[in-house]
Protein 1
Amino acid sequence: MRFYSIIIPIYNRPDEIKELLESLTQQSFDNFEIIVVEDGSTIKCEEICQSFSSKLNLRYFYKENSGQGFSRNYGFKKAEGDYYIVFDSDCIIPSDYFETVETYLNVNPLDAFGGPDAAMDSFTIVQKAISYSMTSFFTTGGIRGGKKQLEKFRPRSFNMGISKEVFEKTDGYNITRMGEDIEFSIRIEKAGFKTGLIPDAKVYHKRRTKLSQFYKQLFFFGRGRINIFRFYKSELKAVHLLPLFFVLGLFFWFLTPLWSRQLFEWGGTAFAVYYILIGADAFRKTRNPFVAGLSILTSFIQLFAYGMGFINESFNYVKQPKPTGLK
């Protein structure tokens, strides 16, 4: 039976970690330790962590702010497990998560793995719509753990596991933010380790609660994709360009009345059909007309914000093409 070390970096989000820790007390498999790394927060979660000391094998550490990637490395160095599991502080873990992982690894050994994310019934309508937009094949191509994928799955740090050997050989994250988990996953592959998706090892990911926060997050993700390009030129694939084409197509569509009314109408029809499909798919999955309707808006934000971030960092790349932020 494997021993797991759960690494949770946190920055000024004590309420989130309370829900996460509470979910970890409900696990059917409990052969794990928890390492909370407070990344220079001004609003600390130490007291909340102490309140779980009788229920969980938990260690709390406070350090100067260095960003999430390097804070995870800090936790890896403190870990004693056979596998290190990284969760974001805004995740809630189903009670069978570790039992699912342990069972899967017994049959299909992996050096590094990830799982999908989903929305709980208790999430707000906004959170459910955002969750749909971040996991739908229509918006992300399924690359974040969907059953259908346009690109090879790579573990993301909201739900990611690595063996102790992986950390010892790779030395963890090379950059602390802006695509740090993708860069790490690519480097794990290049080191010869076996990686994969555990389809049933899902987490409930609360993500952002406001649409403005969601826009900022996706804008940052778009910038991160270009940052990955700085390290690995071959890793910019067609699926990553879809939000860029969406933004350029949208701008082009707004200008088409200047020379072709018919082309404007065709473009409008194409956009309308696309979002009708999104709305229908969201309703099929959630059975909630309000979530389905809002998913149309969040999907637009998801594509537009990512595309704008992609464009923004592309201009920055012209100024600074070499990788930055290395350890």
Protein 2
Amino acid sequence: MKIEIAARQLESLGSPIRLKIYRALVRAGEEGLACGTLQTKVGLPASTLSHHLKVLRESGLISQERQATTLICRASYPAMNALVGYLVDECCMDAACGRQGKAA
């Protein structure tokens, strides 16, 4: 993952409201949530929710799909896994704990 993508995604999650929205979508699973249902869950006016969804969508963390008259929002699990992987893949690589058991 490029550092610019990770930074943009982390920035989009830096808002407590967007983090709340994102967690609701992650919890919803692959089926996602209709915008109306999501609006009720997070307690936001439609215009405010729309603004925050746009930021999350532009960062690649969520997708939206129209089903007839309903807009379904879904967490992008590949994007989430890539971001988490980016953060933990090299954990402790430069620390002594990464070299335990090796001859000094």
Protein 3
Amino acid sequence: MASQSTLRFGAQTDEMTSLLRIVNMVRTGEATTRPEIGRVTGLGRGVVTQRVDHAIDLGYLEDGDFSPSSGGRAPRSLRFRGDRGIIIVCALGALHIHVGIAALTGDILDQSHRAWDISRGPAETLEAATAMIDEVLARSPETPVWGIAVGVPGPVDFATGRPVAPPIMPGWNGFDVRRWFEQRYEAPVWVDNDVNLLAFGEQARRRDESPDLIYCKVGSGIGAGLISQRRIHRGANGAAGDIGHVRVRDADALCRCGKVGCLEAVAGGWALVRDAELAIAEGATGMLAQSGPDNPVTPERISRAAEDGDALAITLIQRSARDVGESIAALVNMFNPGVIVIGGAVSAAGELFLAEVRQRVYELSLPLATRDLSIVQSVDDVREPLRGGAEMVREQLFDVTFPRWFADGRPTVAAIRANG
């Protein structure tokens, strides 16, 4: 027979589990009134009332307006207290820093952006980023920081928050990015590849379209974020989706990673700039050739010139799209997504780029894998990395670590890291 202490522990565990579930149901909109919670969970009216009152006392929920009546007294809706904390997002790119703060609901409240070369190293870069964050925080009411997302343009060991041999980030290998932010803001930090942040944002935007999604970024570099059953797939060591360093058939260009023939070295933005400058030096003419110190060739300029009909730019964009499409086709056969979202500076050429990608994917993928597949362009919004970072932190706080800190009323570094 079970002991009294075992029974009490079991009852406390059941109560905690149902509390967590109720808070998350209200937070996600699955159930927003007490009667709805009872119907979804199967809990009795008295138990639901007790759990909801407890969640209100802890500060997670509050009563809202009355909902429409279906007969009898109208039930009062419940709201998640998304104003109790904020999320900081720091999205580092190869040539920029983008920071912002978001409510616990994921809504972006404020942001700041500046040009920056990440090859200047971790100390200088993170000092610049935290100075930008402090400026944004100073413009907002004092609200506790509940979590921080940091995106970097390179491979990341998600468990430790350290970049691993990032090709375009000299001096960053093994740097403890997570500790840098945790010490400064005394809040839990998660560090991820920048493409994964974009995948999180697209998954939230397209939640009702497909649970399986690939976000492919074709900018200065190339990478992919993989969403499987609405969860990010990072792989065993965080390297999943790194298609930029897949070998391209018959290619011999030297990549920034030190290998030869990588997709990024023939189809990435920096490779297109290299090839455009070479063609211009050899006598190519047209809009793109009208470059100089004040108007350098960039991936963005190549995309715009292609849209405007420049022959050299069109050739570069179409060649990039064909190579990218071939690598994506391999992902389609292995991963079978419902949606592929293409983003980044090179893909900004729009349908010119997308049409070539679609053609290669449908040529090289199995019919069953492409039967319900849609290939679309990402939303052209500079806030997308911020939204994606906020979604990543929300997942970590409320879906992964919630039981560790729920009873404390807010997350702490100690509670989050105590069990992983």
